[in-house]
Structure formats: C-alpha cells, structure tokens
Design goal:
632 residues; 29-stranded mixed beta sheet
Length: 632
C-alpha cells in the first residue's frame, strides 16, 4: 500500500515539475516577446521620423523649384502610410478687421503605428501620441527683422498613397496671397487639427508670437510689437467682459504694501482695482461695504450711480481716483506660457530611455540619481523620512509602458516627510496624480531647480490642527505642473524660502481650482518670507472656474493667482491675498470677506520669466505651393 502511494507521489511531482517548467518558459517567452515588440516599435518609429524628415527636405526642393520630382521610401515597417486630407487648416488674418489673407487646407502625409503618428504637414514634421503633439522638423517660416515670409507647402487634394514608397511632384506654380504692406494691423494665425500643439511650440520658439487662444484642436497666435512680462499692474483685475458682481459680497478691503520696502506692516494707498465688465456695487446697509485705498477703474459703468463714491455716501468708498469708461489693459494670455512650460519640461528630461527599478527603495536615500529612471510603483509615504536626490535627470513613476516614459503611479503622502532634492542644474519627478493628506513634502532647491509633474489631479489637504505642509527650501526655483483638477484645501501650508520661487502651472481648461474649505479654525496658507514678497509664489491657470472657501477657516495667500480665463464663483468666508489676483470676472461671492493687499514690487516683476521685445510685423509675404504625393 505504501509503495503505491510513493509511486503516485513521484508521478504527481513529475507532473508539477513539468507544469512549473512550462509556466516559467511561457512567462519568459511572453515577457521577452513584449520587450522585443517594444524595441521594434521604438526603432520603427525612429526610422519613420528619419524618413519623414528626408521627405520634408525633398518636398521643399519640389515645392520651390529645385527639382521636378523626388522619391522617398518608408521601408517595410509595422506601420501604415496614408494621406489625411482633413488633418487641419491654417488661417492668416488681420486681427482688427478679421480680413483673411490666407485660408488653406493643410493636409498631411501620415505614418501611423500603434496610435503614434509621424506626419508631414505644412512644410514641417510633427509627432503625436494622441494626447499631445510636438515638432520634429520646423516648417519654412522666415522671420527676419520686420518681415515674415510664409512659403506654406500644402498636400494636394489629388494626393493618394497605398504603399511604402512615394513620389513627390509639384501641382502648378506657387499661389501668392496678398497682404497690405506695410502691415497696418496685428496678424492673427490660427492652426487647427491634430498637430496644433506642435505648431504652437513652433510659433513661440521661432517667431516670437504670443498664443492668445487654444482649443481642443486649435491654436491661435498673435504677431505684434509689444513688451511682455511688464509686471502685474492691478491688485484685482477682473479683466474679461463678465460682471464684477459685488452685490452679494460682505466686504472688500484693498490697500498696498511694498515687499522691497517696509513690507506688509505698512499700509499704503496704491491699490488698483480694474474691472473689464460692469461693476455692480453691494446692496449697502449693514456690514456690506467696499473700501479701496487707491484707484478704481471700470471699462463700463458702475451700478448704482457712482455719485458719492469718494465721500462715503456709497457702498463703495475709494480714496483715490474713480474712472468709468477707462482703458483697461488686456491681460497677457496664459495659454502660451503653459505650453512653453510643458515643452521646456519635455526638452529638459525627454531625451533618454529610462533605467527601470522595481521600487522606490531600490533608488536609495543616499545615492544620487544621475540618469533618467522609471520606478514600477507609486511613491506612498505614511511615516518616517525619505529623501531622493536627482542630478540632471528625471524619475518617473511608471510600470514600463511606453518604455517607462508615461507616468501611471501616484504620489501619496499622509504622514512623515518626503524630500525631493535637486542636484546639478535640475531634477524632475513625474507622477500620474498626487494626494497629500498629511505629513510634509519638501522641495530642496539649494543646488539646482526642481520640477514636479503631475499629469492628472493634484490635491493637498490636512487634518485639523495638523496641517499638510509643502516647503521650498534653498535659493532655486521649484515648478509644479498639474494636468487635472487642482485643490489646495484647509489645514495646508505652502512655505517658500526667502530666496526661492515656486511656480505652479495648472494646464486644464476644463478643470477646477478649489482653494480653502478648512475646518477647526485651520485654513490654507501660502507664506514667502519676512517681507512677504508676492513674486515668490505664482499660480498660473487656464481653468474657467476658481473657488475660494474661507467660511470655516481663513484662506491666506501671499503670491499671485493668474487665471485670466476663470470666473471666481462659489466663494465665501475670509480670503486674504497679499499680491495680486487676475481673473475673468467675479460671480457669486456668497457673503465673502476679501482683503486684497497689493505688493507694489509686482509692478516690475517678470511675470513670464523674462522680459522680451517682440519685433513688429511690418511686412508679410504669404504663398502656398501644392505638392502631389502618390505611390511610386
């Protein structure tokens, strides 16, 4: 009996061993196959980029008369080559009159594999992964001195491709589009289609244009002469055409201080409140009042009649000048600056294949990270102290998809201290989302600048008297890039060292910004040093909604909130801002109590990092040349 049981055990063991062997071999083959497929895909797309850049060069020869025809081969890769006749349009028009100089379909020759597209369009090469597009090779726009020459190359409606080898020929002579020279108006250029973000980056980097509008599939730039980055001139600027609705406000008090002088201990009368739409005054009576120690400027009317506004016989009391029908300067659009911020991030960190690590503990607290790395997990800290020092590289929370360059892991902190430390010139950390609900996140910028990129939502909140802290220490620059909703709620503290700067870029036109909503008397604060310099903290956003909640606990911010597309709505309680607030308009203020203290040092601050003279467009020459693309 026992011998039979032993015989069955031997057979069963053999079967299990064979099964385990088959499983291990199968898993190894599958993983190896996946890695091989990723490598083949990467190599194929790189080869397609090279072929498309070669096509760009040869198309230029054909379009400008250097050759009657040219041939290009894409080889036998894993992607498809096709012509997309609906890939986009370009419209060039005078800004003031709207008169069109050019309205042309661009078309595109596209190589596509696994959702990634390499496209020739408009005389340039572009790459898109379905979410964002970037420029590979620039189109032939020539911007010299005061003359812009646009020799636009378009894909003929007769173009058709069904193979990997193509031939290029011209379709007739160039067509010239007449502009009034010298140009009497600003020039507005709009590009629609899948590659508009790449075009946006091109316009900003090669033509000194300013992006003035960006939609889901379009970008509009303005070519004109002006100084950008001249500072923030207004304490509160509600600079859109929406109402500056003060009917439901409980109080608004505005004054100024100079962080480069005596600081916030000195109350000065240089506040400026500017309204692009009509001002509706408080109802008056009780505690409802507006006191402006400085000037009030309105593009339209102040309701009710502003008589008595400077002698205390009105719900609005102003110590300086009151101007109706005033010239209100338009705010510099924020869209282009956000595009540039993200492009600069990609340029800093996007040029190397990352080394993969299984966990954050593999990186070690003591060993500097000196090459681009991906970690197959999010960073989750609930206690203790963890430090990650990065020198001229980026760390991505990624499971290896897209070769480890796409973040799919989260940053979660609910206790302890996490220090992200910059070495060399810069350091980057990238996550899918961030949730800080306790503990402390420290940006150490003593030795370099630091970027935290969060592709989705960013949330900060504390618990009662134990606030969640974000601290910037050292003398460098910290930058946070947020691609989803942004909420900085109660019991949270942001502290920026005296010599440092924190810029928060919120790039989500459909996203929300919620600030405040504290409890237990512990609100949300931003502090920047002894004299409270407002130019140490900047929040830039293209969101259309912004809410402050200081009802149960106050909101106290030193810095600049620059969200020129946003309506301030659902706002209540005590809100103190030392610095400036630039928005589109004020809606439902719900018995809010605003204290605005304008930092006069902002008048000469470099808002968009640098002051730059944009050349005047005095002469404009636009032409289009169609090329036919067909199978060889």
């Amino acid at each position: 009996m026992f011998g039979g049981e032993r015989a069955q055990s031997e057979v069963l063991g053999t079967v299990l061993l064979l099964g385990l062997t088959v499983t291990v071999v199968g898993t190894t083959v599958a993983l190896g196959g996946a890695a091989l497929n990723d490598s083949q895909r990467t190599a194929d797309l790189q080869r397609a980029e090279g072929a498309m850049v070669q096509l760009d060069s040869k198309a230029s020869l054909v379009a400008h008369g250097g050759s009657p025809s040219q041939r290009v081969s894409f080889g036998s890769g894993g992607g498809d080559v096709d012509v997309d006749h609906d890939a986009g349009r370009m419209v060039v028009a005078e800004n003031g009159t709207g008169d069109e100089i050019l309205n042309a379909s661009l078309g595109a020759l596209v190589y596509e594999r696994d959702g990634t597209r390499i496209a020739y369009q408009g005389g340039g090469v572009w790459r898109s992964d379905g979410n964002r597009s970037r420029m590979v090779s620039a189109p032939e726009f020539h911007y010299r001195g005061e003359t812009l020459t646009v020799p636009l190359v378009t894909v003929s409606e007769n173009a058709t491709v069904d193979g990997d080898d193509v031939i290029l020929t011209s379709e007739g002579s160039p067509k010239r589009h007449v502009a009034r020279n010298p140009v009497l108006d600003d020039i507005r250029v709009t590009v629609t289609g899948d590659y508009h973000e790449g075009w946006a980056a091109f316009f900003e980097s090669r033509t000194d244009a300013r992006i003035v509008d960006r939609g889901d599939d379009s970008v509009t730039v303005l070519l004109r002469s002006e100084m950008t980055g001249e500072g923030i001139a207004y304490s509160i600027g509600t600079l859109g055409s929406n109402e500056f609705d003060l009917r439901s406000i409980e109080s608004l008090t505005a004054d100024s201080y100079d962080s480069e002088g005596a600081g916030p201990s000195e109350s000065r009368h240089n506040a400026v409140i500017a309204a692009g739409g009509e001002i509706d005054a408080p109802r008056g009576g009780g505690s409802e009042y507006v006191t402006i120690r400085g000037d009030l400027r309105a593009r339209y009317d102040i309701q009710p009649n502003p008589s008595g506004i400077q002698n205390g016989d009105h719900p609005i009391n102003v110590t300086g000048n009151v101007t109706q029908r005033a010239t209100i300067e338009e705010p510099d659009p924020v869209e282009g600056y956000l595009v540039r911020a993200y492009d600069e991030y990609d340029a800093r960190y996007g040029n190397a294949t990352p080394t993969s690590y299984g966990s954050w503990s593999d990186l070690g607290d003591d060993t500097p990270i000196t090459s681009r790395s991906s970690v197959e997990d999010g960073l989750d800290v609930s206690g203790g102290n963890e430090t990650y020092r990065v020198e001229d590289a980026e760390v991505i929370a990624s499971d290896g998809g897209e070769n480890g360059t796409v973040a799919d892991g989260d940053l979660t902190v609910d206790g302890g201290t996490v220090t992200l430390e910059a070495g060399g010139d810069h350091a980057g950390f990238r996550f899918d989302s961030a949730d800080l609900s306790g503990g402390e996140l420290v940006f150490n910028v003593s030795d370099g600048d630091l970027d935290l990129r969060v592709d989705d939502d960013f949330s900060v909140s504390g618990d009662g008297s134990d606030p969640t802290e974000i601290r910037v220490v050292g003398g460098g620059n910290a930058r946070i890039h947020v691609g989803g909703d942004l909420s900085i709620e109660g019991a949270s503290e942001l502290t920026v060292a005296e010599a440092a700067e924190l810029r928060l870029f919120h790039d989500d036109p459909d996203g929300d910004i919620d600030i405040g909503d504290g409890d237990d008397g512990t609100g949300m604060t931003v502090s920047t040093g002894t004299n409270e310099p407002a130019n140490s903290f900047w929040l830039f956003s293209n969101a259309d909604s912004l809410a402050f909640d200081g009802d149960d606990a106050p909101v106290d911010i030193t810095g600049v909130v620059y969200a020129p597309n946003a309506e301030v709505d659902d706002t209540e309680g005590d809100i103190v801002i030392r610095g400036a607030l630039t928005v589109d308009g004020f809606g439902d203020l719900d018995d809010a109590r605003f204290t605005m203290r304008y930092d006069e040092a902002l008048e000469t601050a470099e808002v968009f990092d640098e002051i730059e003279q944009v050349p005047t467009i005095n002469y404009l020459h636009v032409s289009t040349q169609e090329i036919r693309i067909e199978d060889d």
